[in-house]
Amino acid sequence: MKVGYVRISTKEQNTARQDELMRQLDVEKIYTDKMSGKDAERPELHKMMDFVREGDTLVVESFSRFARNTQDLLNLTATLKEKGVRFVSQKEKIDTDTNAGKFMLTVFAGLVEFERDTILERQAEGIAIAKADGRMKGRPKKAVDIFESAYMEVKAGKLSATAAAKQLGISRSTWYRKAKEYEDDNTMIDI
Prior knowledge:
By secondary structure, the protein is of the alpha/beta class. Helices cover 56% and strands 12% of the residues. The chain has eight helices and five strands. The chain has helices at 16-24, 43-51, 63-66, 70-83, 99-132, 141-155, 161-168, 172-185, and strands at residues 2-8, 29-34, 57-60, 86-89, 94-95. Strands 2-1-3-4-5 form a five-stranded mixed beta sheet, with helices on both faces. Strand 4 (86-89) and strand 5 form a beta hairpin. Helix 6 (141-155) runs antiparallel to helix 7 (161-168). The longest helix has 34 residues, at 99-132.
């Protein structure tokens, strides 16, 4: 089955161009989100990812309509591959049933990894220079004390991790990462 995914950023925009493309390509079922692509919680995208099954083809007008960024694209296409679903992006002429399409996704994956490694390398170099110059001494002790207090309340069952994260003004994923760092070496590394 040919399944299509259409997305526009705002309710005021029009899906006509993407809908017409889906008609031209004989797409049988279309899922449409009318919200920003930077939002990972796109309900129709999730429904479509749950719906597609082995042998289906997912058609999108372009990567920008489907994924928030290259990493998101790679994650989504990896999920499709696991399910045995072919991915076709019309604008970029990518088709995962072709060697060229598979190659392009591999190139994207390599670029994302290279970019991530380069950023981490530059960040580590900058931190080392700042420490050597005495400009970086870490967070004030107060931030550590606040985290430790919240951490102890969570461990005692008096506070949920969600509430603790909210109290500290950080996301839940950041809370869990910092809690693991704290447990691993009993020190805080910047909240």
